[in-house]
Amino acid sequence: MQFTKTVLVAAAVMTICGSAQASQLVYRPTNPSLGGDPLNGNWLLSQASAQGEGASQSPGFSIDFPDFGGTPQPTPTPTPLPDVDTP
C-alpha cells in the first residue's frame, strides 16, 4: 500500500514537471526604423507626442534634457571669425 502510494505520487510529480515546457523567444520589432511594421509609425509618433511636458506646448518634436545634478556645465566660448574684405 505504501509503495503504491509513493509510486503514484512520484508519477504525478513527474507528469506535472514534464508538462512544463519552454518555447523559443522571438523578437518582433515595433519601431519601423528597426525593421518593424511601417504602419506602426503614426501610432508611435502619436504616443511619443502625448508624453512629456512639452507635448501640450508645441505640436512638434521636443527634447527634455535631464538635470545634471547641479554640476556646472561649461559654457562654450564663441570663436572669433576672421575679417573678410568685401569689395
TrEMBL record:
Record's compositionally biased regions (Polar residues): 49-60
Biological function: May be involved in the biogenesis of curli organelles.
InterPro entries, A to Z: T8SS_CsgF
Region of interest called Disordered, as start-end residue ranges on this chain: 49-87
Signal peptide residue numbers: 1-22
The organism's taxonomic lineage, starting at the top: Bacteria, Pseudomonadati, Pseudomonadota, Alphaproteobacteria, Hyphomicrobiales
Domain of life according to the entry: Bacteria
Key word Iron-sulfur present: no
Protein's recorded name: Curli production assembly/transport component CsgF
Keyword Signal: yes
Keywords, comma-separated and alphabetical: Signal
